[in-house]
Design goal:
With about 300 residues, this protein is of the alpha/beta class. It has a domain of about 170 residues: 3-Layer(aba) Sandwich (Uracil-DNA Glycosylase, subunit E). It is built from 14 helices and 6 strands. Strand 5 and strand 6 form a beta hairpin. The longest helix is centred in the middle third of the chain and has 18 residues. The radius of gyration is 23 Å and the shape is globular. The protein starts with a helix and ends in a 5-residue tail after the last helix. The C terminus is likely disordered.
Amino acid sequence: MTMPARTRDELLSALFWQVEIGADAAFLDSPPGAAETTPLAAFMPTAKKADTPPAAAAMPPEKSGPPLKSGRAFSGLPASQPAAHPDLNRLDSLPALQKALADFEGCSLKHTASNLVFADGNPQAKIMLIGEAPGRDEDRMGLPFVGPAGQLLDRMLAAIGLDRSQVYITNILPWRPPGNRTPTAEETALLWPFLRRHIQLKAPQIILALGGSSAKLLLDSQTGILKLRGQMREVDFGLPARLPVLPSLHPAYLLRSPAQKKLAWADLLTLRHFLDKLPPDKTDPDAAMATESARSNPAGD
Ligand code: URA
């Protein structure tokens, strides 16, 4: 079927606009109200919507207020969004935290995402990996790091003898930002109390911060990731002891800049070295066997 050129151009431009604002997946076979409206009307933004920048439209107005923590670059919680956080300190398990997030109505990202992406891996693992936010594949599957960046992450872990059963993975945001845009400072601030409680309940022995957003948030720093990476810092997350945080490069960045993989490899070796120095975990059968064999054969013959 051929279409008049003007209508086709308008339809294409409307489609690109939808993709730009992140509406890149169809949830119904036909647009809502398709029977009563022309296809063009169903796809075109109204004049009012087009005047409003998409990101601003998605977020409530900002309120300036005290920063969450000195030096943290957050502009405060959104004013018109009474971010009724549940009493997170009362949540005493990871499943309880997951349910609290699923029930949380204070973040507009929840309404554009398909799934809550809480975590993957082993809740008993010594290592907690924290990325930025789910992408399209993660949003569809409800699991972090399952797309191309996640596949590279799996290969990076395998290079130092780890797999998903030996790590615990989550993100700063549990919902996909439309169009995979970078999380706003407001979204990060809004969801930080949940991530902080996540870290407390998980209580890992080390955190690997994947990418600049994660590293800057966890280290409360404005320094770029290329300067932060590879240097372990101990951070107070409200646990009895400060936790070491190792910033490294995000696998999605490594897919775009493969020449930087050598830097990520150096960071992985730092992580491996840290793990090797930890006292053996008596509940880990592999570690227990390795310790027993080292005891009965100290020379390693
Ligand atoms: N990038 C992230 O930071 N997290 C994911 O889960 C996937 C891609």
